[in-house]
TrEMBL record:
<keyword id="KW-0325">Glycoprotein</keyword>
<feature type="domain" description="Plastocyanin-like">
    <location>
        <begin position="560"/>
        <end position="643"/>
    </location>
</feature>
<dbReference type="InterPro" id="IPR011706">
    <property type="entry name" value="Cu-oxidase_C"/>
</dbReference>
<feature type="signal peptide">
    <location>
        <begin position="1"/>
        <end position="22"/>
    </location>
</feature>
<feature type="domain" description="Plastocyanin-like">
    <location>
        <begin position="66"/>
        <end position="154"/>
    </location>
</feature>
<dbReference type="Pfam" id="PF07731">
    <property type="entry name" value="Cu-oxidase_2"/>
</dbReference>
<dbReference type="InterPro" id="IPR011707">
    <property type="entry name" value="Cu-oxidase-like_N"/>
</dbReference>
<dbReference type="GO" id="GO:0005507">
    <property type="term" value="F:copper ion binding"/>
</dbReference>
<feature type="region of interest" description="Disordered">
    <location>
        <begin position="467"/>
        <end position="508"/>
    </location>
</feature>
<dbReference type="Pfam" id="PF00394">
    <property type="entry name" value="Cu-oxidase"/>
</dbReference>
<comment type="similarity">
    <text>Belongs to the multicopper oxidase family.</text>
</comment>
<feature type="domain" description="Plastocyanin-like">
    <location>
        <begin position="177"/>
        <end position="323"/>
    </location>
</feature>
<dbReference type="GO" id="GO:0016491">
    <property type="term" value="F:oxidoreductase activity"/>
</dbReference>
<keyword id="KW-0186">Copper</keyword>
<dbReference type="InterPro" id="IPR008972">
    <property type="entry name" value="Cupredoxin"/>
</dbReference>
<dbReference type="InterPro" id="IPR001117">
    <property type="entry name" value="Cu-oxidase_2nd"/>
</dbReference>
<dbReference type="Pfam" id="PF07732">
    <property type="entry name" value="Cu-oxidase_3"/>
</dbReference>
């Protein structure tokens, strides 16, 4: 088997762990405690106005040293992973066509790899940076690895090197270009949380992923230090990141959800958001959004038009975690991170700009209660890419969340339907039974003319090898069809009077404490009845290269092999009754051609017309509970590419 002729594609579920790493004037943020690492200086993520986007291709070299140290990003001192002594890490800015050589020095006592989210490794597929998939981990205590790759990924467009073909032009469409990274922040380490979630005891007695303690913007949050115990160190953070621009100018905010669990709402008080980019695809999008919501791994660009008459005024920027997407919420949550936008005269010196805190109020909370994507039909790609009307094959991945070994498809569908029925009858019931219920149907989903929810019905041929438990072939005279059956003391206060009973801004009552784990069970996720097992020193890519075993172990990961560089349909169905989940695909654009409610089967796939005329393309999509999404993709980049399912539990 030659890796050069095949695209190997598979999906896993895991709890993502991020190292979250701001022309306008920016004030530094404070370092509340004597910690070794600091939040990134706001100036760090302001793109340079003198950066030559028309320069000839060149090689750009960077050194990134990863250390385990302490930091107090939200005032609470805890162990962290830092890159070059800061969180978030340093900005890497490059043009399309450049070559990047990035040396990673691992000074921690654990192994790691570094993945370049949203950048397609079209030429060097071994540099994707996924442990157990494309490479072995970088050794601990001084291990060094240099990633070397080009940024000229054929026809593909990327988030950080898209200037050459970026339809937005500085000084024409906007005046300033600022990166804002939003993240959910926990006071316990991810390793402790995940280890306990996967144990029979659970994390606080449950396998359900916990809500975060605090929201961050560019590594700065404001947790309430009065909630800290006498054994915990915390100094109150009082200075959020702030940016000063000339009144009347336009700011492009590149929004990144770098969190592990939280969906975020972003807004700027008294300013509308013009959405111009989704996951590095330039779009004609809505220009009148008060809030934009983005899920784990998603990126959007928005342009904010300031007003000359507002000179001297200050406005809050708000990034709010949607706790309605969680199974349970800690009692000490600070769910909103703040930034400050200051509007000055064009000749104002920094020392003459007002330092007062804004007195503005946030927009009314008119965003959806559900954990869903922005309606794809509202975002039209500027660079047209019409997909073919037919495909040569299809494959489907089905998610089931369960505390037993696994449910059958029929059992999971039954439970999800019952949960949906309950939540539809009584909106208050969803909060009280949040572990097993889902949301109402949103207006963003397409409805049939008779008012019923649209289901997925179309027959797609599959000349593709499907691996995994329950996988196989069905042959007939015209085509082959896939037949797939379905220890230590916590930092968080464990107060018996938790967040339960309190209504969210959207009017949903949160669960009073973590949902219990049935005795004798542990929590697991299954894709096509396979639960992902990582073997760090036996990467999937190595198995498929000369000298490897030549196959993928279907008991370790659900996977598919696309034998030809042609178009295929990927059918994603979420049979999990309790949660919506973001799916992130490496190396290929996902063209969204259908989506809706229900549990369609391959036998029902012939009754709907797919949207193939310039559909939205992106690399991260959200599939709500009891719902499906169909994406069309061109499997023309050889390699072993992972599809990550970021776990979110309602």
């Amino acid at each position: 088997m030659s890796i050069n002729s095949l695209s190997i594609f598979f999906l896993v579920c895991y709890l993502s762990v991020s190292i979250i790493s701001a022309s306008p004037h920016a004030l530094p943020v404070q370092n509340p405690l004597n910690s070794a690492a600091r939040s990134a200086h706001p100036q760090e993520y302001i793109l340079k106005s003198d950066f030559d986007i028309h320069a000839k291709p060149t090689t750009r070299r960077y050194n990134l040293t990863v250390t385990e140290t302490k930091a107090a990003l939200d005032g609470f001192l805890r162990q962290v992973m830092a890159i070059n002594g800061q969180i978030p890490g340093p900005l890497i800015e490059a043009n399309e066509g450049d070559r990047l050589e990035i040396t990673v020095i691992n000074k921690m006592n654990i192994e790691l790899t570094m993945h370049w989210h949203g950048l397609y490794q079209a030429s060097e597929f071994w540099e994707d940076g996924v442990t157990g998939v494309t490479q072995c981990p970088i050794p601990s205590n001084g291990g060094i690895y240099t990633y070397k790759f080009d940024t000229n990924g054929q026809r593909h467009k990327r988030p950080n090197d898209s200037f050459a073909r970026d339809p937005l032009k500085r000084s024409i469409d906007f005046d300033h270009d600022v990166v804002l990274m939003m993240a959910d922040w926990y006071h316990n380490t991810s390793s402790d949380i995940v280890q306990e979630m996967l144990s029979e005891a659970g994390y606080f007695g449950t396998p359900a992923a916990p809500g975060a303690n605090c929201a961050l913007i560019n590594g700065v949050g404001q947790w309430n230090c009065s909630l800290a115990t006498t054994t915990q160190q915390c100094n109150q953070v009082t200075s959020p990141p702030e940016f000063t621009v000339t009144a009347g100018q336009r700011i492009r905010f590149r929004l990144i959800n770098a969190g592990v669990h939280a969906m975020f709402f972003f807004s700027v008080d008294e300013h509308m958001l013009n959405i111009t980019e989704a996951d590095s695809t330039g779009i004609y999008g809505p220009s009148d959004f008060r809030h934009i919501w983005l899920h784990n791994g998603q990126r959007y660009s928005v342009i904010v038009q300031t007003k000359e008459e507002d000179v001297g005024r200050n406005f809050y920027m708000r990034a709010t975690m949607n706790s309605d997407c969680w199974a349970w919420v800690p009692n000490d949550i600070q769910d909103t991170a703040l930034g400050i936008l200051r509007l000055a005269h064009d000749d104002a010196r920094p020392e003459n700009v007002s330092k007062a805190r804004p007195d503005t109020q946030g927009w009314p909370q008119d965003f959806p209660q559900e954990c869903i994507d922005i309606d794809p039909s509202l975002m039209v790609p500027i660079l047209k890419s019409t997909v073919p009307a037919s495909v040569v094959g299809w494959v489907w991945f089905q998610l089931i969340n369960n505390t037993a070994e696994h449910l059958t498809r029929e059992e999971a569908v039954r439970l999800a339907k019952e949960a949906h029925h309950d939540s539809s009858r009584d909106p208050n019931l969803r909060g009280k039974k949040k572990y097993v219920t889902i949301s109402h149907r949103a207006k963003h989903y397409r409805d049939r003319s008779d008012g019923s929810a649209e289901d997925l019905h179309d027959v797609c041929r599959v000349p593709a090898t499907f691996h995994g438990k329950g996988g196989g072939y069905q042959e007939n005279s015209s085509s082959r069809h896939a037949a797939v059956d379905t220890g230590q003391e916590k930092n968080r206060q464990h107060n018996p009077q938790r967040f339960g009973g309190r209504k969210s801004p959207a009017g949903i009552t949160r669960l009073a404490g973590p949902p219990p784990t049935p005795a004798g069970t542990i929590g697991k996720y299954f894709v096509n009845n396979v639960s992902w097992t990582t073997f760090p020193y036996q990467p999937v890519l190595h198995d498929l290269t000369p000298g490897g075993v030549g196959t993928i172990n279907g008991s370790r990961v659900a996977n598919v092999i696309f034998p030809t560089a042609e178009w295929y349909d990927l059918y994603l169905v979420n049979v999990d009754a309790a949660g919506s989940h973001p799916y992130h695909l490496h190396a290929m654009d996902m063209h969204i051609v259908a989506y809706g409610r229900g549990f369609p089967t391959p036998e029902k796939l012939s009754k709907i017309k797919y949207s193939t005329e310039n559909p939205l393309r992106r690399d991260t999509v959200v599939v709500p509970s009891a719902s499906f999404v169909v994406v069309r993709l061109n499997a023309d980049i050889p390699g072993a590419w992972i599809m990550v399912l970021l776990i979110r539990i309602l």
